[in-house]
Write a structure and sequence with these properties.
single chain; about 325 residues; alpha/beta; TIM Barrel; 12-stranded mixed sheet; two-stranded antiparallel ribbon; 10 helices; binds S-adenosylmethionine; binds iron/sulfur cluster
C-alpha cells in the first residue's frame, strides 16, 4: 500500500499517453507548443504497462488514461487491453475531448474501458469553437452518443469561464441530466499556458445559478474522488471540483505519470522524477523505489487558493489534467 507522509493513501494513477492534442483549448494549450516531445522520448505502451503493473502490485486500484488527447495516440485499446488482462479488477477510465469517440468508443469498451469523462464546455457551436479554437461541436456530441451506445459510464467535465460560457451553466446541466450523465463543473486552474485574460467562475457562483432553478442538497465528497457532490430529489447527482478550496488536497489519492515517464506528485508543482531509465533497464526495484519516493514526497497542497501565487507553470496537456 502506497502512503504519503501525511498518511494519505495513494490508489489512483493518471497516465498521460501523449501531450499532443487535436484541440487548442484556451485554458490548457492556448497555442501549439514550440516543440513536441520527440516520439522516441515517449514511453511505448509496453513500457507504460511495465510501470502500471508495478503500480497495481503496490496497491493502485484505479487508472485513468489522459493527455493531451489520449485518443490521438494510435491503438489506445491495446494499452487498455494489457491493463485489463493483467488486472480485471482495476477500474480503467479515460478522459477525452470526445472528438474521436465516434470511431473508437466500441473498441475501447471491448478492450476493458469502463468509464469515460468527456469534456464539454459549451453546447453552442461558436462558443465551443472559440474555447477549443476548432469547430467541433457536432463531432463531440456524436462522440458522446457513441459512448452512450457503447455502454460506457459517462461523466461530463465543464470549465466555466466568465463572459465566455457562463450563460451555459443551466443548458449544460440540463443536457447532462437528459443523457443520465453526471456533470462536474471544474474550476478554472490558472496556469501560464492558458490565454492570460481568462477568469473562471468559482463553484459557489455556479451552485448559485443552479439553485435559482433547481432544488438539491450537498451530499459531500464522492468516495476517493475530487468532486463535491449534490443530489436532487429524483436522485440525479452532479458535482463541482474546487481546487481553490483550502481543504481540496486533504483527500488527494492520486499520482500522475507523463507520456515521457515523469512521475508527478501534484498537478500544481513542477516537481517530478523519471521512471524511464529504470523501466528501460527492466529494473523493477529501482522503479518501485522511485514510486515510493514520489508518493512519500507528495506536496501537502496546491497553491491555487493562495493569493498572489496562484498561477501554476505546469502544462495541463503534459500532466494530464
Ligand atoms: N484532452 C482530454 C480532455 O480535454 O478531456 C484530456 C486531457 S485534459 C488536460 C483533462 C481535463 O483537464 C479536461 O476536462 C479539461 O477540461 C481540464 N483542464 C485543462 N486545463 C484546465 C484548466 N486550466 N483548469 C481546469 N481544468 C482544466
Ligand atoms: Fe486538448 Fe484536453 Fe487540453 Fe483541450 S483540455 S487542449 S482537449 S488536452
Amino acid at each position: 500500500m502506497l502512503r504519503d507522509r501525511f498518511e494519505r493513501k495513494v490508489t489512483y494513477l493518471r497516465v498521460s499517453v501523449t501531450e499532443r492534442c487535436n484541440f487548442r483549448c484556451r485554458y490548457c494549450m492556448s497555442e501549439k507548443p514550440f516543440s513536441w516531445v520527440p516520439k522516441e522520448n515517449l514511453l511505448s505502451y509496453e513500457e507504460l504497462f511495465a510501470f502500471i503493473k508495478i503500480g497495481i502490485d503496490n496497491g493502485i486500484e484505479k487508472i485513468r488514461l489522459t493527455g493531451g488527447e489520449p485518443t490521438t495516440r494510435d491503438n489506445l485499446d491495446e494499452l487498455i487491453a494489457m491493463i485489463h488482462t493483467y488486472a480485471p479488477h482495476v477500474d480503467i477510465g479515460l478522459t477525452t475531448n470526445g472528438f474521436l469517440l465516434p470511431e473508437q468508443a466500441k473498441k475501447l469498451k471491448r478492450a476493458g474501458l469502463r468509464r469515460v469523462n468527456i469534456s464539454l464546455d459549451s453546447l453552442e457551436r461558436e462558443t465551443l469553437h472559440y474555447i477549443t479554437q476548432k469547430n467541433v461541436l457536432d463531432q463531440v456530441l456524436a462522440g458522446i452518443d457513441a459512448a452512450v451506445d457503447a455502454g460506457l459510464s459517462i461523466k461530463l467535465n465543464s470549465v466555466i469561464l466568465r463572459d465566455i460560457n457562463d450563460h451555459e451553466i443551466l443548458p449544460l446541466f440540463e443536457y447532462a441530466k437528459g443523457i443520465g450523465a453526471q456533470i462536474r463543473y471544474i474550476e478554472y486552474m490558472e496556469n501560464i499556458h492558458a490565454t492570460t485574460t481568462l477568469q473562471g467562475l468559482r463553484s459557489d457562483e455556479i451552485i448559485d445559478v443552479l439553485g435559482r432553478k433547481y432544488s438539491f442538497i450537498p451530499i459531500g465528497k464522492e468516495s476517493a474522488g475530487p468532486a463535491n457532490l449534490y443530489e436532487m430529489v429524483d436522485g440525479y447527482r452532479f458535482g463541482t471540483i474546487e481546487p481553490h478550496r483550502h481543504d481540496f488536497c486533504e483527500t488527494c489519492d492520486r499520482l500522475r505519470l507523463s507520456a515521457e515517464g515523469d512521475l508527478i506528485g501534484c498537478l500544481y508543482f513542477e516537481g517530478a522524477k523519471s521512471i524511464k531509465q529504470a523501466i528501460r533497464d527492466g529494473n523493477i526495484d529501482q522503479a518501485t523505489k522511485i514510486l515510493e519516493e514520489v508518493v512519500f514526497n507528495k506536496p501537502e497542497k496546491n497553491l491555487w487558493g493562495i493569493e498572489n501565487v496562484e498561477v501554476s507553470s505546469r502544462a495541463f496537456y503534459r500532466t494530464g489534467g
